[in-house]
Structure formats: C-alpha cells, structure tokens
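Minutes, project check-in
Item: structure for the 75-residue chain
Input as provided by the requester:
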Amino acid sequence: VHFTRREVRQYSGWHDHRVRDALQELVDMEYAMILKGTQGQTYQYRLAGGGGGDALPLSELTTPAQLEALLAPSS
C-alpha cells in the first residue's frame, strides 16, 4: 500500500508540517520507507513490514489503547 503526504493530511486533519515531521520520524525509525519523491515532487511512502525481507516487528508499536492508558491522568 502506497500513500502520500496529502492522503495522510486528508485522513488525519493534521497540518502539513506535522505530517512531514511524523513521516520523517517513521522513516528515521525504519517503520516507513520513501518510495519516491524529491523536493518539488510528490513523496510516496509505504509502511515497512509489508512482507518480504524488510519486515519489521510492527507489533511492538504502541496501540491506541496502550497510548490512552499511558496518557491518562493518574488518580
């Protein structure tokens, strides 16, 4: 599955700078890969672990429920 920054912006409602930062962080951590794109061109990404030899243990990512529990105020 390939996706672009625009698709992430439309899906998430985030501003462009937030999408760029988040995707760059995922690329740096090797959870996503840039398929194509340079300055002035549309960037296309794909998540790593989509099969093949570059599969990553994506199950180690924090789930939304785990994140919510971590961010919940302590009682």
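Outcome recorded: The radius of gyration is 14 Å.
No further action items on this chain.
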